[in-house]
Amino acid sequence: MELNSNQIQEILPHRYPFLLIDRIIEIEPGVSAKAIKNVTVNEHFFTGHFPQEHVMPGVLIVEALAQAGAVTILTLDEHKDKIVYFAGIDKCKFKQKVVPGDQLVLESKVVKKRGALGIAEGVATVNGKVVCIATLKFAIG
Predict the structure, then answer these.
(1) Which residues contact 40 (CB under 8 A, 6 or more apart)?
(2) Nearest Cα to Cα of residue 125 among 96, 95, 105
(3) Which residues does residue 37 pair with via DSSP β-bridges, in sequence order?
(4) Pairing status of strand 32-38 against strand 23-28
(5) Domain boundaries of the chain, sorted by first residue
(6) For 55-110, how does the pLDDT look when each residue is reduced to its tens digit (9 = 90+)?
(7) Which of 14, 49, 54, 79 is catalytic?
(8) For the residues of 50-96, what is the DSSP string, one character each?
(9) What is the pTM assigned to this prediction?
(10) Fewer CB within 10 Å, N- or C-terminus of the chain?
(11) Are 72 and 108 in contact (CB under 8 A)?
């Protein structure tokens, strides 16, 4: 199943300038999702990060991973119309820069869920190369 940006906005509460995924290209509700983010020079954050060398902030890459994970959880009927909150992050590493023209592939897999709390593993890649890995903790509200 694929979801376009309009369908994503029916699931996530995020809007411009904070919706950081453009499309869901694979999803298994409650288990995993694969999303894409097309990075363009027109992103608002490039005006300050950095004017002399555009680099996507690492925290926004992590947020994009978290949003892909949130779609994974919120596509379950039992969590429809809820919000997934970012509850923590572990083992986050950045491997290379993300710049205008890159297409981020964001993969999130739920590895543990107990009640309203859970843990997901996230991997962001560009052209098949890992740019970020992280363990993301979440709470369903």
Answers:
(1) 100, 101
(2) 105
(3) 104
(4) antiparallel
(5) 5-140
(6) 999 999 999 999 999 999 999 999 999 999 999 999 999 999 999 999 999 999 99
(7) 49
(8) -TTS----HHHHHHHHHHHHHHHHHTSGGGTT--EEEEEEEEEEE-S
(9) 0.96
(10) C
(11) yes
Residue 44 burial (CB < 10 Å; 0-12/13-18/19+)?
A: exposed
pLDDT digits (tens, 9 = 90+) for 9-67: 999 999 999 999 999 999 999 999 999 999 999 999 999 999 999 999 999 999 999 99
Q: Which amino acid is located at 102 in the chain?
A: D
Query: How many CA atoms, within 13 angstroms, populate the side-chain half-sphere of residue 82?
Result: 18
Do you know the residue count of the chain?
A: 141
Measure CA 15 to chain center: 14
Q: How far is CA 51 from CA 11, 62, 131, in A?
A: 34, 21, 21
Binned at pLDDT 50, 70 and 90, residue 1 comes out as confident
Per CATH, the homologous superfamily of domain 5-140 is Hotdog Thioesterase (3.10.129.10)
Closest CA to 62 of 117, 122, 139: 122
Active site residue 44: no
Residue among 45, 31, 40, 9 at smallest CA distance from 107: 31
